[in-house]
Amino acid sequence: MLFAQLHPLVVHFPVALLVSGVVFEFYGTLQKEETALAAGHFNIRLGLACALLAGVVGLAALLTGIEMKDSAKLFAGYHLTAAIATLLLFSAAVGVSRWRGTRAGTRMIYLALILLGLFAVLSTGYFGGELVHRFGTATLQ
Questions:
Q1: What confidence tens digit (pLDDT) does each residue in 89-103 have?
Q2: By CB distance 3.0 to 4.6 Å, which of 4, 47, 123, 129 could disulfide with 138?
Q3: How many domains does the chain have?
Q4: In angstroms, how far is CA 65 from the centroid of its own chain?
């Protein structure tokens, strides 16, 4: 139960970093603002690293037998799927960004990946919030 209670506490920081990173990247791109681009670049990378940690804690919660109502299992599946999509999309974006200056069109691919990643992280948060607040998963009730 420790991991199940710890997971909701550690996920908020990577969510904030990833969301703000995407906002900075798009703002910096539209306004041609190098400082915003650097902040977005940093936030996305740190957010991805922290999201990996939050994912490990969440996976540990699943593997240690988190108690869950039957009605919540569908939401848990959606939450897990969206979390995996988030990690894959932002990982792909980070990989693509390494070749940003050497290949034409990679900036557009990078922006598309982080935009999809934004939707994935928001979906992950929605389903995770439903698990906690609607179904009482991992609460002390």
A1: 999 999 999 876 556
A2: 4
A3: 1
A4: 23
